Amino acid sequence: TKIFRISDIQGENVKRQESEIRQYNEHLKQMEESRKQLLTDISHELGTPMTSIQGYLRAMLDSIIEPNVNYLQMIYNKTILINQLVEDLFEISKLESNQTKMEFEDILVESLFSMFKNKFELEISDRGYLFAMDPLQGVPKSMLAVVSVDTVRIEQVMNNLISNAFKYTPQGGVIHFQCEVDAELSICTFKVNDSGPGIEEASLPNVFNRFYRGDKTKQKQAPGGTGLGLAIAHEIIKKHHGQMGVESKPGKGASFYFSLPIRLLNTR
Ligand code: ADP
């Protein structure tokens, strides 16, 4: 058996403290890096539409181009984008710094699922898509599954997933809802599947990153996004102690999902 001397133990403690300080410094450095990156991203994202507005206005003032409705519309669209960016940034920064007040309430998974159907089915078909929905899967007959959610926020997440399905899926496509409770009866997973172009494998890990906007060709098909929608949705799900993810194969549609912890009630 090894005999520990006081000096050994003190030495161990000092080493542990040093390693903790190193880890903490590393963490601070990473935070500083990500803060700098965020500022760079923000100035870039706001700067691009600003420069383009200035360019059009300067050219009109210098009589290089004639003011016409098309130019004015382009300028107007850029101001809308800037506005959206500022709003989204404000929202994500409030979420990340815990300044968003969440109003949690218990609701049956089944009720939440039919709430999504009631809220979105009509809009989906009005916009020229086919709506499909599977029955809730995985809840034993004698049980009721309950989730604790801020319904307004969860609806916002669904709204984001469905707006993306609209943006990226050509009309006539299918938007399909699923909800499943896992075998351990610990989480329920809500899925929004679309029949759009899908996402290439290399981009999948990036779609929840701030300002990520896929490839340039798709941006042309779906202009005007801020690349913050999914990052905001992800933050909201994290506030629910849930997880969010995506599965997709190019050409085979995208399937965005979020999982929330559940509690079970016995009905017997
Ligand atoms: P935005 O839609 O404003 O670009 P999001 O954060 O909502 O920002 O989405 C990030 C990126 O993820 C999009 O630019 C797009 O490339 C990709 N994406 C999101 N939803 C879908 C979808 N349903 N189908 C294909 N690509 C998608």
From TrEMBL:
Q: How is this protein positioned relative to the membrane?
A: Multi-pass membrane protein
Under Enzyme Commission nomenclature, its number is: 2.7.13.3
In terms of superkingdom, the source organism counts as Bacteria
Protein name per the record: histidine kinase
Which ranges form a coiled coil? 14-41
Keyword field: ATP-binding, Coiled coil, Kinase, Nucleotide-binding, Phosphoprotein, Transferase, Two-component regulatory system
Keyword hit for Glycoprotein: no
Compartment(s) of residence = Cell membrane
Q: Please give an example of a GO cellular component term from this record.
A: plasma membrane
Full-sequence range covered:
54 to 321 of 321
The Histidine kinase domain extends over 41-264
GO MF assignments: ATP binding; phosphorelay sensor kinase activity
Reactions listed under catalytic activity: ATP + protein L-histidine = ADP + protein N-phospho-L-histidine
